[in-house]
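Homework help board

Subject: predicted structure for assignment chain

Our instructor gave us this sequence and asked us to write out the predicted structure in token form, then describe one feature. I got the tokens but I'm not sure how to describe them. Can anyone check?
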Amino acid sequence: MLASWDMAARLLSLFCALVSLACFVLPMYIIRPFRHQGAHELAVALFVRQIGPSLSVACAIVSLALLILGWRRMRGWLTRLAMAFACVLALGGAYLARVNVYELMFHHLDTPQFEVAKDSHVDKDDMVLAVLVNGDARAYPIREMAYHHVVNDTVGREPIVSTY
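My token output:
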């Protein structure tokens, strides 16, 4: 009876750790820049991103409860170490599911630098976001926008936000 509880607890703890980590890893993998995302996989990633914080906390609580309640029942230091490691992974997944990694990765530009078009280093095949306000024009290269995502600028004496 003790061995079956031990095995069930280890498997459930491992499952909780994997689910908790998946709540962070799956959306991060699918919604990464410079990669095509299909509509179905993007919908899955956004769904996991939405339920991830709650699901990962539930997994972390189950994993922690299994570790605390079963600590004395566990045989051997290897089993205890494995359960503690799974619990740490589940707690880490619960934390990471709450971190908006995209805000950490992408840095908005508050004071963009511009060049005259003929002096710019934009390849002729590069796409740009073009803005024309009151006769003043700007072109924001998509390659840069994919990294920064947001540019705060003034075009034609009007403050604008360009985003991609």
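Reply (TA_rk): Your tokens look well-formed. For the description, you could write something like this. The chain has a mean pLDDT of 84. That's the kind of observation they're looking for.
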